[in-house]
Amino acid sequence: MKLFFIGLISGIISGMGIGGGTILIPSLVFFTELNQKEAQGINLVVFIPVAIAALIVHYKEGNIKIKQAKSIIIGGIFGAILGSLLVLKINPNSLRRYFGIFLLFIGIYELIKKE
Amino acid sequence: MDTIDFKLVAIGFVTGIINGLFGSGGGTLIVPVLVFLVKMEDFEAHATAISIILPLSIISTIMYLKSNIIKFNIGYVVAIGGIIGGFIGAKFLKRIPNIILRKIFGVIIIITALRMIIG
């Protein structure tokens, strides 16, 4: 039930257009037995069905710029492989700290960002 | 045939590393890039970001799977909650003033980040 509510709350917040993994991953690390790597794995699995549903809607509405997306995806595939390989080399506690540093930048950006 | 923009390829590479390393964050990174650098409208940037992060997340998921990092028995419960919550958030809560909400979100994220770094 706890897991369901963690999913529900981070889903509500990401549905409002902010957060997503930035809420879900820390919640899982703080409130469950999962370590950083496992929490990140859960976030990836949860993201995929939600993203497919959102993508269908956006595609029908013609909001996706496929030409630019293609170049970014080509580079992104190599980055995704490298980033995932790095996860295997890092222990979960160090990874949690690096994630925290990344999160700190996101928080600061949200605060100083102009509309 | 479309030309490949190497600046965008490089941006994609960095986005992929972050998204793979942290299992998240790719969208947070790529949306401002699409708005400020590629000059997309906000709604186009959000839509295009999903089309970019989805394939990258699928690749990362496969690689996490091979290393037995993914706990499906827990994941599906979180996913059900997440899908219901996402629907509620998108349908009913979109009209809450965005600026205040984002500043509150920013503060919460910074506190969370510090706890993750120190803890």
Describe this structure as you would to a colleague.
The complex is a heterodimer of chains A (115) and B (119). With 115 residues, chain A is mostly helical. In chain A, 83% of the residues lie in helices and 0% in strands. Chain A has one domain (2-112). Chain A has helices at residues 2-15, 21-31, 36-60, 66-89, 92-112. In chain A, α1 packs antiparallel against α2 and α2 (21-31) packs antiparallel against α3. The termini of chain A are far apart. Chain B has 2 domains: 1-70; 72-119, no CATH class. In chain B, α1 (6-22) packs across α3 (42-66) and α2 packs antiparallel against α3 (42-66). Chain B is globular. In chain B, 45% of the residues are buried. Chains A and B meet through α1, α2, α3, α4 and α5 of A and α1, α2, α3, α4 and α5 of B.
What can be said about this structure in brief?
The complex is a heterodimer of chains A (115) and B (119). Chain A has 115 residues and is mainly alpha-helical. Helix content of chain A is 83%, strand content 0%.
Name the features.
heterodimer, A: 115 residues, mainly alpha, 83% helix, globular, B: mainly alpha, 2 domains, 5 helices
**Helix share bin of chain A:** over 70%
What is the typical, i.e. mean, pLDDT of chain B?
90
Give the total of domains of chain B.
2
- The global form of chain A is globular
Radius of gyration of chain A: 16 Å
Strand % of chain A is under 5%
Number of helices of chain A: 5
Instruction: Tell me the span between the first and last alpha carbons of chain A.
Output: 37 Å
Counted beta strands of chain B: 0
Radius of gyration of chain B: 17 Å
Query: Strand-and-helix sequence of chain B, N→C?
Result: HHHHH
Class derived from helix and strand content of chain B: mainly alpha
Strand content of chain B is: under 5%
Report the end-to-end length of chain B measured between terminal Cα atoms. Answer: 51 Å
> What does the largest sheet of chain B look like?
none
Major sheet characteristics of chain A: none
